Amino acid sequence: MNDAVPDSAGGAFGIAAVERDTGLSKDTLRVWERRYRFPLPARDPSGERVYSRQDVEKLRVLKRLLDQGHRPGKVIGLAMEQLERLADSAAPHAARRAEVARLHGGLDVYLDLIRQHRVEELRRQLSQSLLRIGLARFVSEAVSPLNELVGDAWARGRLEIYEEHLYTESIQVVLRNAISSIPRPGSRPPVVLLTTFPQESHGLGLLMAEAFFALEGCRCVSLGVQTPLLDIVRAAAVQRVDIAALSFSEALNPNQVIDGIVELRSKLPPVTAIWVGGSCSALVRRVPADVLALRSLNDIAPALATWRSTHRST
Description:
Helix content is about 55%, strand content about 10%. The chain is an alpha/beta fold. The radius of gyration is 21 Å and the shape is globular.
């Protein structure tokens, strides 16, 4: 069925759309339906689950609470107002929001443009910012904190799903144009393949990483998002890839992330490095020893310098 089906209540969503936009897997949604009686989706004429806008908004908040360590059985039965108060009371998250707002208060103008649906003006102002400060600073000092502000506004119900998508598409357009203008590298290694696993539909972090790799003179081979593992292996062989770089958002199941990384490591030749990054919690402590976890985009340049220093004779 379609991911989103309009109805008189202001929108209905298929299970694939709910999984993508809340970060909760289809299996989780079905288990909660049986165990906790929430959500209780309607059915379309084909018998497929259809979730209301109210369901999706509550599921967003529940995902935030699960990320903070709450157990589903303790919070699913709470009213929306109680859930929002509980989510907002988490000190680390509140402190982080305050820090981002203090350091990047000028970014509010972009949020206003998103809410006003002024897409062309949004892209124009983003492009002007990029020209003023350069691509690297634009990504790290504008796009990264803006992602946090937009993600927080979306999670708190202050941006609609389609508005978050408008923002993401605008950033991608600006970044792709900037990356395409970078002079092509000569024969200087490494060759970097960029992609995500099949469960990961978020590609903005991948594009931000590509900008940093391209600025460092790498030849980038982007497969986009949701590439099957065996296709990653085949593409790495055909393109003679030196580094496979993968992005993981916080929406993914940490166990699936680690299992996938371990499997990929076993199928790629030892000479092909695997570098991973993103907001997934599993990347902090559980990455295999022979996989490099990048804590931030600014780690890319020194990591490449180290790689090049150890591969001078190859």
